[in-house]
Amino acid sequence: MISNTVxxxxxxxxxxxxxxxxxxxxxxxxxxxFLGAGxxxxxxxxxxxxxxxxxxxxxxxxLAGDRLLTLSAVVGLIASESLSLVGxxxxxxxxxxCAIVATAGEAxxxxxxxxxxxxxxxxxxxxxxxLGLAMAPVIPVxxxxxxxxxxxxxxxxxxxxCAVTIVDYLRQAVRSLQAV
Length: 180
What we know:
Layout: H1 2-24, H2 28-50, H3 56-79, H4 85-107, H5 120-135, H6 147-179
Helix pairs in contact: 1-2, 1-3, 2-3, 2-5, 3-4, 3-5, 4-6, 5-6
């Protein structure tokens, strides 16, 4: 299946991304790997639907790829000491949410048993923008605030939406598990 191959390649990009961030810190190459993995995330789903290759395996690999990308970006940025304390805390919430939602999904018999939150797209956008901007070389544009303040704002916004979606997913899981 072509779409699963794309997803596996995307998952494979998380290793060099983490190593690059952890050893060299943020920079253009790390940003390009991160953005490339993000584009492949969009492409693999579109390919699966267009080629009729949608499957439980593909859905599992896609979710694993999403979580590994978040984990490698956050831990790599923390290892390189590229995030402020606020950024580290927000990043930890992003990673914790991945673990909590995965656990809730597994408790219900698979991730497709949880209804996606309406805030999911906004959470993904804020976290992707915040992590990407944290990896970007310093932007030489005059702004009323610094690049790191914008990173913190984006990541705190993503962390807030993570907290809200965690509550929603846990409510779903508890309701479903009580009904069994």
